[in-house]
Amino acid sequence: MIGKDKVICVITARAGSKEIPGKNYKELCGTPLINYSISNAVGSKYVDAVIISSNCQNVRNVTQHLVDNVKVFFVPRPEELARAESKNESALIHAAYWSEHTIKVRPDIIVNMQPTS
To answer: What sign for the dihedral angle of Cα 11, 78, 75, 21?
Structure first.
């Protein structure tokens, strides 16, 4: 939370990269890339909820132990929002809607993190 504003962090990790298959869960120093983003988001004192938005079962598998954290959630992304031509903004809107209606966190601020950044 920043002031009175609720903050969610959405980590967008769709399956199907043509350049580097499986890039979101490739390991760096023994840790899947996406886990670095999750750990940093969880560590922020400003983030109220961390949402992993993905259509990839492998992403779900490598992040499952982190989803047990009180503020980390895996949100299955519909395939129509996970195509190569899909807009990232659509996934963010989907995650915000899910957050408001499922965990009752209505975001005022949405932080988008990429697993590979």
So the answer is: negative
Q: Is the pTM of this model over 0.90?
A: no
Q: Which residue has the tokens 């209505």?
A: 106
For residues 32 and 27, give the distance between their C-alpha atoms in angstroms, rounded to a whole number: 4
Number of C-alpha atoms within 13 angstroms, CB side, residue 25?
16
Q: How far apart are CA 45 and CA 2, in angstroms?
A: 9
Q: Write out pLDDT tens, residues 61-114.
A: 888 777 766 689 999 998 888 877 788 899 999 999 999 999 999 999 999 999
What dihedral do alpha carbons 102, 55, 85, 117 form, nearest 10°? 90
DSSP 8-state assignment for residue 5: B
Separation of alpha carbons 64 and 48, rounded Å = 19
